[in-house]
């Protein structure tokens, strides 16, 4: 909106969400000549029990301190779930935010030891989905899980990663919504700004999803991936917070077809000996000799 205040995250979120609610979902007649998708501003105001002028001020960023009661009413009209409602409340200036000291993301030494002992794909990610550490089976599952890669960048820009996910559309929607949730109000973080800027320029899919202002957690669930060697794998995903980073593990149902395929993948990725007898890593790179 040209008349919207700069940095108006609350107004941007309200506008994006009302455009996703149809008149039928709100119990209104569709009407014959609607110029905007979703609900009109005055319809949101009517259903929320506030004046159209006040709602307009909220969307335009001229009032950033609505009461919790007003936000609760708007959340009801916009059909927000618990995660989205919490996010909306966090956008209000009524909740003071203490300044946070930016610290580099660090993988504790004990987590590296844990990764080495896990017999399932496991890796450590940062808040913006940077891969910080991984075990060999995670890399065997997907080379994009090597340290240094960003999971969201790979998902949106790497054709192999797109083919890897059976439901790429859902995966991208979930990841983009989770990024907005995890970043929260740290929108001035340089790494976050760089990632969003890069993806906004390079990916039409990202631009469309980012404009929706979806928010959701990406803590656990089940996904199906298509490995180029062992085929389709149905894997559960769990995330465990350890200090400032997240440990992510993928595992199949015990004794399932996917369990058998994962064991085969593990066997195929075992270190092999080079022609000169030097041990090689699962990626095929000679391991350094111990001092």
Mean of pLDDT: 84
Strand fraction: 5-15%
Computed structural class: alpha+beta
Oligomer state equals single chain
Largest sheet: 5 strands, antiparallel
Radius of gyration: 23 Å
- Which parts are unreliable, with pLDDT below 50 for 5 consecutive residues or more? 273-291
Number of strands: 5
Helix content: 40-55%
**Number of helices in the DSSP assignment:** 13
**Sequence of strands across the biggest β-sheet:** 2-1-5-4-3
Order of helices and strands: HHHHHHEEHHHHHHEEEH
Overall, the morphology is elongated
- End-to-end gap: 63 Å
What does this structure look like?
With 291 residues, the protein is of the alpha+beta class. It is built from 13 helices and five strands.
List strands and helices in order, with pairings.
Blueprint (H helix, E strand, L loop, with lengths): L8 H10 L22 H8 L3 H8 L8 H10 L4 H9 L18 H9 L4 E4 L5 E4 L1 H6 L9 H7 L1 H6 L3 H16 L6 H13 L1 H9 L7 E8 L3 E12 L2 E7 L5 H12 L23
Antiparallel strand pairs: 1-2, 1-5, 3-4, 4-5
Give a short overview.
This protein has 13 helices and five strands.
Tag the structure with descriptive keywords:
disordered C terminus, 5-stranded antiparallel β-sheet, single chain, alpha+beta, 5 strands, 291 residues
